[in-house]
C-alpha cells in the first residue's frame, strides 16, 4: 500500500468518526477524492481493499456502499485481535525468535521512534505510522507459523478498526492522539524486549494490553453514547 492510498484510508476514517458518512451511503471515488482534496487514483485503489475487508459492500448496480457495524461488534473484534496476536507472540517467544525477525522488528521500532520524533500528529505521521504498525504486527503473526491464527486474524480484520492498519485521528484533541500513539509505540518496545528474552506469558499479556490504545484512538465510549442516543449503527470506512 502506497503512502497516498494510506492517507486516503486514514482521512475517510476521520470522516466516519465525525458522522459525515452513514450506513448505505455510496462510496464513490469522485466525490470522495474531491472532498479529501486528492486525486481519484488513491481513492480508487482503496475502495476494493475496503470491500475485501468487509467495510464496503458491492452495490447492486456498480460501485460500493458503506456497511454498518455496532460499537459492540468493533470492541469484540479488537479484543479478539489481542487474544489471537497474544497467542502468536507467545508461541514465537517460546520457540525462539530468529535473528532476522528480531532485526526486522528493531527496524520497525527505529522507524516508529523517528516518526514520533516530530512531536505531533500530521497527515505524513499518520500514514507512516500505519505502514510501520502493519509491518510490526505482520512480522509476529507470520513468524508464529500458524495458518489457523493467520486466517482467523484476516477474518477478524474485516470488522472496522480491528485490523493493524486501522488508525483514525480525532483532530479535536491532537495532543491526546499523539500521546496515545506514543504510548502504543512504547508498548512495541516492551513487546520486542519480551520476545527477545523468550518471555512467553509476558509478551502474550502485552499483546492483549496493546489493543487498549486502539480503543482510545476511537474514543468508543463517546461513539457508543452517540449510537445509543441517535444512531443505531456505527458505520466505518477505512
Q: Which helices and strands, and how do they pair?
A:
Layout (H helix, E strand, L loop, with lengths): L2 H15 L8 E2 L1 H8 L3 H13 L3 E3 L5 E3 L1 E2 L1 H25 L3 H18 L6 H21 L3 H10 L17 H23 L3 H10 L2 H7 L1 H10 L4 E2 L3
Antiparallel strand pairs: 1-3, 2-3, 4-5
Keywords:
single chain; mainly alpha; Four Helix Bundle (Hemerythrin (Met), subunit A); three-stranded antiparallel beta sheet; two-stranded antiparallel sheet
The CATH homology group name of the largest domain:
GntR ligand-binding domain-like
State the helicity in percent bands: 55-70%
What is the CA-CA span between the terminal residues? 13 Å
Helix/strand-derived category reads: mainly alpha
Report on this model:
The protein folds into 2 domains: 3-69 and 229-235, Orthogonal Bundle (Arc Repressor Mutant, subunit A); 80-218, Four Helix Bundle (Hemerythrin (Met), subunit A). 67% of the residues lie in helices and 5% in strands. It has 11 helices and 5 strands. The chain has helices spanning 3-17, 29-36, 40-52, 71-95, 99-116, 123-143, 147-156, 174-196, 200-209, 212-218, 220-229; strands at residues 26-27, 56-58, 64-66, 68-69, 234-235. Strand 2 and strand 3 (64-66) form a beta hairpin.
Would you kindly provide a brief summary of this structure?
It contains eleven helices and five strands, in the order H-E-H-H-E-E-E-H-H-H-H-H-H-H-H-E. The protein is mostly helical.
